[in-house]
Amino acid sequence: MARFNDMLQATTTDEGLLRLVKDWREDEGWREFHRRYAPAIEAHARRSGLTHEQAEDVVQATMIKVATFTRAALSTCAAPKNQIPAQR
Q1: 80: which DSSP letter?
Q2: Is 14 strand, coil or helix?
Q3: Taking the domains of the chain in order of start, what are their residue ranges?
Q4: What contacts 37, CB < 8 A, 6 or more positions away?
Q5: Tens digits of residue pLDDT in 5-45
Q6: What is the pTM assigned to this prediction?
């Protein structure tokens, strides 16, 4: 918990939060990410005509996609140029 609080205070940007959630095991980071973005995702889904249950599914699918993309993108950025992972 202390690591999360220190990191969150040091990185108040969205980019900093994405770096924090790069580690899928970082529960506190994901809780903060979900707290910040799930309401907006759900509201957009509802405005698009989805039911509450469908909107919740959209939130879950979006979080999974963000987790997958963030981990891949941040890993790619940190990799030496000659070791960039192949895209599927």
Answers
A1: -
A2: helix
A3: 2-74
A4: none
A5: 555 454 456 777 777 777 767 778 888 889 999 999 999 99
A6: 0.62
Please provide the DSSP assignment of 48-65 as one string: TT--HHHHHHHHHHHHHH
| Token pair in block for residue 21 | 């959630």
How far is CA 41 from its chain centroid? 12
Is residue 79 within 8 A of residue 85, CB to CB? The reply is yes
Q: Which two tokens stand for residue 86?
A: 């192949």
Of the candidates 73, 18, 19, 62, which has an alpha carbon nearest to the alpha carbon of residue 40?
62
**Spatial contact of 86 and 76, defined as CB atoms under 8 Å apart:** no
Q: In this structure, is the dihedral angle defined by the CA atoms of residues 33, 36, 39 and 45, taken in order, positive or negative? A: negative
Cβ neighbourhood burial of 44 (10 Å; 0-12, 13-18, 19+): middle
